[in-house]
């Protein structure tokens, strides 16, 4: 068996060329490459999120609408008759405690039913413990999959009993987990969000938001940019070109 060398653009970057050390998640078997991809959602339902809107559960409800729209766009498929792409979904929500609402599953219906049942937790915000729990969930899986986490938080914390966000995010990245960070609203601590996001931040943070500016409408542009890749900002203008040739006399 060997690693299949074709590149597939999804989730904003090349999946099959950036594997964790020693991983062989996309294997060429019987003329078809199996490429399982896992997406784990980490949802902050602490007091700093819940109290941003009235009624207090409404922003959490927006998050619960954002995720189904997100995973609706992720379908199992066979790419160019060569690569079989399959998806798994899991998630937890947290405050100063962590609740795993869904282990990784291949069933969207199972995952979405468990997502719909969560309620905000309130109290403090221990984001480092949430990331640590996510990493443990991936470690418990035997599958050699491509791993993503989508962390939905405002960047504020009230404590760091699990070593801090930066340390836990680095630990997750060392395992080959790519972390996207999505803000639930405009009220964020950006430095905290960037401590979590994988580099480059122009790809894994890029001002992603659950809702559109000054509204509680789902920001579908964020979903599209994460899945298809952010086109980025225009580059700088190039240097002036050389002068043109001297013209011929007229007449």
* Terminal CA distance: 75 Å
Output the helix-strand order.
Answer: EEEEHHEEEHHEHEHHH
Q: What's the assembly state of these chains?
A: single chain
Note poorly predicted spans: 1-10, 12-25
Q: Overall pLDDT, averaged?
A: 84
Q: What CATH first level would be assigned?
A: Alpha Beta
Determine the strand fraction and express it as a percent band.
15-25%
Here the CATH topology equals Rossmann fold
Number of strands: 9
Radius of gyration: 21 Å
Helical percentage: 25-40%
- Number of spatially distinct domains: 1
> How many separate helices?
8
Overall 3D shape: globular
Structural class: alpha/beta
The CATH H-level superfamily is: von Willebrand factor, type A domain
Structural overview:
The chain is an alpha/beta fold. The protein has a single domain (32-228), classed as 3-Layer(aba) Sandwich (Rossmann fold), CATH 3.40.50. It is built from eight helices and nine strands. Strands 3, 4, 5, 6, 7, 8 and 9 form a seven-stranded mixed beta sheet that branches. The protein has a two-stranded antiparallel sheet with strand order 1-2. Strand 6 (83-94) and strand 7 (98-105) form a beta hairpin. Helix 4 (127-139) packs parallel to helix 5. The longest helix has 15 residues, at 58-72. It is globular, with a radius of gyration of 21 Å. Residues 1-10 and 12-25 have low confidence and may be disordered.
């Amino acid at each position: 068996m060997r690693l299949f060398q074709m590149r597939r653009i999804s989730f904003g970057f090349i999946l099959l060329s950036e594997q964790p050390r020693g991983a062989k998640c996309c294997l060429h078997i019987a003329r078809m490459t199996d490429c399982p991809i896992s997406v784990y959602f980490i949802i902050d339902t602490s007091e700093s999120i819940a109290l941003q809107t009235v009624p207090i559960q409404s922003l959490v409800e927006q998050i619960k609408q954002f995720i189904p729209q997100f995973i609706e766009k992720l379908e199992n498929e066979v790419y160019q008759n060569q690569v079989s792409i399959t998806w798994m979904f899991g998630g937890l929500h947290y405050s100063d405690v962590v609740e795993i609402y869904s282990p990784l599953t291949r069933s969207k219906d199972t995952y979405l039913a468990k997502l719909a049942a969560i309620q905000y937790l309130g109290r403090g915000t221990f984001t480092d413990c949430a990331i640590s729990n996510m990493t443990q969930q991936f470690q418990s899986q035997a599958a050699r999959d491509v791993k993503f986490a989508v962390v939905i938080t405002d960047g504020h914390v009230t404590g760091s009993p699990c070593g801090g966000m930066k340390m836990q995010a680095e630990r997750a990245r060392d395992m080959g987990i790519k972390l996207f960070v999505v803000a639930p609203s405009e009220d964020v601590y950006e430095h905290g969000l960037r401590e979590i996001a994988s580099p480059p931040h122009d790809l894994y943070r890029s001002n992603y938001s659950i809702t559109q500016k000054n509204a509680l409408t789902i920001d579908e542009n964020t979903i599209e940019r994460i899945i298809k890749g952010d086109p980025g900002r225009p580059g700088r203008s190039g240097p002036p070109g050389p002068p043109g040739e001297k013209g011929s006399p007229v007449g």
